[in-house]
Amino acid sequence: MIASSPRLLTQLLLAMIALSWVSVLSARAEPVTVTDLLGRSVTLPGPAKRIVLAQGRQLNALGLLHPDPIGLLAGWGTDHRRQNPDAYARYLAKFPAIESVPTVGDGGTQDGFSFEKAVSLSPDLVILSLSLAGTRRGGQGDLVERFEAAGIKVAVVDFYLQPMRDTLPSLRILGKLVGRQEQAEAYIRFYEERRRLIEERLRGAERPSVFMHAHAGGFDCCQTPGKGTFDDFISAAGGRNIAAAILPGATGQISLEQLLAADPAIYVATGGTHLAKLNGLVLGLGVPRETAAQSFAALLGKPGIAALAAVRNRRAYGLWHLFNDTPLHIVAIERLATWFHPERFADVDPQATLDEISRRFSAIPLDGTLWIDGAGQAKP
């Protein structure tokens, strides 16, 4: 029979393989179009392969979508290594090539970012935050136009200024731009499930007064979020941020006297490895529980802080500050909710949520001490 001819079978197999490769290449060549946070339509000839990540901290989001986010980088901002050294160490251990990725200045500010260096890297896409795009400070706001004039595609995403509004749209934008739509949608489903549970449990709940002490112990008291950023997390977790009514902007400082006069029901300090040399609260990826507990006990013993009713009533807590610019913040909201309303969230385990994200989504392991309770004992 003709079908039994080995030569013919071989030819048929080769033809099928060739057709499958044509299909794959055609799929890869399909244009990718998104609408970014500024409402701009951005079209690429295919998923981005050489990205300049202007704000380096956005690696925290990219690393939830792509198994090798470092392999996508043509260049990136130095702010990630400066602000998030514990995560950087995790990336370095798994992706040594991170050391050789060109930098484009400090993406934390417009003044620190180098447009010329970014252009010289010939990226197929530049990712900007809303801050760098000029929307927060009412600054020059011309980076988008300058990249477009240079013939370089640029998209704007953000996880910081208004995280509850912009995180999920930004994940969808990033996922499509790098060809990881299914992973982005999987994380979004997971995020929305956790968020719905929190919202349902909080129906009818009274909101306790909360003070969040940012970068606690490392600087003069007391830096704190005003409106936006961590304030969104406090509200989503069923609390009332006392500083939101005092400060006009996203962040600011109130005096210790103001804090003592307000005497909130709950005190939440934020910390990170960047505070280790300043004798502040040390939390983060890779931080041992003993280190976190010692630094938190020292913080709660400081004059003024020790006088707060929240400390006396063992309703003082510590939270990793770097939850503030990553889609991981759903874990922070869950953790805050268990502190604010323990009776409503007795069966909710934020550590299990974090472990699932680490297992299913994250390019790096998310181990360490990212929060601590009022007794000064780190929660595993």
Describe this protein's structure.
- The protein has helices spanning 6-29, 59-62, 79-83, 85-94, 115-120, 143-149, 163-177, 181-201, 230-236, 256-262, 289-300, 309-312, 329-340, 350-360, and strands spanning 32-35, 41-44, 51-53, 73-76, 125-128, 154-156, 209-213, 223-225, 240-241, 251-253, 266-271, 284-285, 316-320, 368-369, 371-372.
- It is α/β, with parallel strands linked by helices.
- The protein folds into two domains: 31-179, Nitrogenase molybdenum iron protein domain (Rossmann fold), CATH 3.40.50.1980; 206-372, 3-Layer(aba) Sandwich (Rossmann fold).
- The longest helix has 24 residues, at 6-29.
- The chain is globular and about 75 Å long.
- 45% of the residues are buried.
- Mean pLDDT is 90; it is low at 21-27, 135-140 and 376-380.
Total helical segments:
14
Globular, elongated, flat, extended or rod-shaped: what is the shape?
A: globular
User: What percent strand?
Assistant: 5-15%
Classified by CATH, the class of the largest domain is: Alpha Beta
Can you tell me the CATH superfamily of the largest domain?
A: Nitrogenase molybdenum iron protein domain
